[in-house]
Amino acid sequence: MIQRKVKAKKEHARTIEQFCSVCKKTFDMPVVEEADNQDVIWLNCPGCRGYLPHMTNQEEIAEAEESEREEARKGSEDLSMEDISTDSAREYQESNEYQVGEVIYHRSWNDYGKVIAKETLSGHRKTILVHFVNQGKTRLLEGVA
């Protein structure tokens, strides 16, 4: 006969306070999985049910999250075609690099937007945060070879 141990009290799942860029809110998210080297901890957002990586020991990630929270606090002011100069717009290509304030045109979406922030992610990946007229605020890749 096989004996099984029964736990007397229920263990509480470990949680980490994290900002979700989809929900635009901060939650105490349960830890789903941890890497052996403790560099990445995967969290589950209770709002959107998505999985988010939590990078440990990286100040850049914390700064990026803070800037994203700050951007969310500012609200989502609408952007109109009158607010941007489409004459100098560059067509978006993920291999190009862009500057904050630059106007870009996204051919697939037939939409113009203004670059409002830049970020460097882990693995030296770069993204730009673009506020589009119709699409709203969207993160796009930058400088992909």
* Main β-sheet, spatial strand arrangement: 5-6-7-8-9
Largest sheet: 5 strands, mixed
- Summed over residues and divided by their number, the pLDDT gives a mean of 78
Residues in helices, as a percent range: 10-25%
Task: Count all strands and give the number.
Answer: 9
Treating each run of at least 4 consecutive H or I residues as one helix, how many helices?
1
The computed structural class is mainly beta
Q: Judging from the principal axes of the Cα atoms, what is the shape? A: elongated
The portion of residues forming beta strands comes to: 35-45%
**Low-confidence spans:** 4-11
Radius of gyration: 20 Å
> How many domains in all?
2
How far apart are the first and last residues' alpha carbons, in Å? 60 Å
Protein described:
This protein is mainly beta and 145 residues long. It has two domains: 15-73, no CATH class; 81-142. Helices cover 10% and strands 39% of the residues. The protein is built from one helix and nine strands. It has one helix at residues 59-73; strands spanning 15-20, 25-34, 40-44, 51-55, 90-91, 103-106, 111-120, 126-132, 136-142. The strands form two sheets. A five-stranded mixed sheet has the order 5-6-7-8-9, with no helix packed on it. Strands 1-2-3-4 form a four-stranded antiparallel sheet, covered by helices on one side. The protein is elongated. Residues 4-11 have low confidence and may be disordered.
Task: Give the arrangement of secondary structure elements.
Elements lengths: L14 E6 L4 E10 L5 E5 L6 E5 L3 H15 L16 E2 L11 E4 L4 E10 L5 E7 L3 E7 L3
Parallel strand pairs: 5-6
Antiparallel strand pairs: 1-2, 2-3, 3-4, 6-7, 7-8, 8-9
